[in-house]
Each structure stands twice: as C-alpha cells, then as structure tokens.
Amino acid sequence: MNTEIELKLLREIEELKKKVNILEGNENQIPTYQYSKMRDIDLKKLFEIEQNLDNSIFDEWFRGNIENNQVEIDNSIEVFFKDLIEDNKSLIERYSEEDLKINFIAPILNKVKFKSYEKKMRDFYESRMTYKTSQFVLNGTVDFVVSEGLVESKKPYFFIQEFKRSEEYGNPRPQLLAELISAVELNNWKLIKGAYIIGGNWHFAILEKLEIGQYQYFISQNFDSTKIGDLKLIYKNLLFVKNEIISLVEA
User: Fold this and answer.
1) For every residue of 115-150, which 3-state class applies, written as one string?
2) Which is the most buried residue in 38, 60, 153, 231, by most CB within 10 A?
3) Could you give the percent of the chain with pLDDT greater than 90?
4) pTM of the prediction?
C-alpha cells in the first residue's frame, strides 16, 4: 500500500513539474551553450572529441609554405613588426582584452588583409553564429572569423578565439573547438583551421570530423608573437590560410 501511495505521489509531482514548465515556457526546451563559456566538460558532454598528438598534420601548413616559397615577407613588413613588438611587448601581459586586440592583434591581422571585394570575403569581429540540433544549441559571439560575405558573415572559414592575456580569464581552446565544430557542421565539411591567443602566445588548431558527433583536433606548438622570428611565422601561417580560403571561394 505504501508503494502505491509513493508511486501516486511521484506521478503527481511529475504532472506538477510539467504544468510549471508549460507556465514558464520551458516545455521541451533544449539546452543552450555559449561559445564564450564553453569548457572541456561541456564539449565531452555534447561530442566524442579527442586531441590527436601527431602534429605532422601541420607540416603542409607551417613548413610547406616556406619550402615552396609561397609566402614572402618584404623588408617593410619586417620593420613594421619589429616596431609593433617594441611598442607593445612591455604591456602585453597588462593589457585588457580589448587593449590587446586593438594595439597588437588587429595590426597583425590588418597586414594579412583578409578582406577582398573581388572574392566577396572579409574578416568579421564579434560576429554572431548559431548551430542548432535537436539535442542542443551552440550560439554566441565569436571574436574573429574570416568568412564569405561582405555585409554579413555567410560561410565561416577560419576562426581566431580569445584575445586574452592569461588562462585565468578562461580557456580559449574549448571555445575555439566549439566554433570549429559549428562551422564544420554548418558548411558540411570534414576539416577546418583556427587559432587561439593567450597574451602574446598563439596556438594554431585543426579540427577534423570523423563520424557523426565524433571529432579529433590537433594543437600546434606555441608561437610567441613578441619574438620577431615567431611573429614572421605567424604572419606566414595566416597568409597561407588566406590563400587557401581564396582557393575555396573560387572553387
């Protein structure tokens, strides 16, 4: 008899919960995750995703562009970068996120010049993006994306996440990976590139879709943008991405 009463009470509680959800507009509501708040634990909850430690996947990207002489840096660019480093290196660890973006990161990206009226593509800052499934929603504002489209972002190709000065302000890696997964699914691709920045340090990333809901990713060595040799390599890596995107747009 006690068991029957308990079961009846449980059913009544469930019915009350349903009525409350209906009244509050929460019925059938699926969970929503913000890119800026994504953590490793959230990624693991939503996807099967693992890091692959075989960094040979970066060979074509990093070394191929140098060996094949596809990217050249003239003296004026090198002088510009040396002056940029000298003007900012003492403050990089003290800069706020916006200070870092405006004073140091944006000048580098402007030299790459992703914008092309002819190809109808450009770089977007603080762009909105949403990826929705029947189980969850990923949305929010992405720090930087190179995308097809001039007035609005139509097809995202390459992301840079988190112009932050230290890990204590959040881990940009899972945030970047969530953006890359969204772009892979929205574009119906298998592979996509990106990067994340912490202070003066850059890491490049490649995400690969293996199966439905299953991914692997690769994280590059660290590039210290306060050192001219590393900054020149960062610039070359970004130019390689730009040329790759132009080829994709043309195709």
Assistant:
1) CECCCCEEEEEEEEEEEECCCCEEEEEEEEEEEECC
2) 38
3) 72
4) 0.83
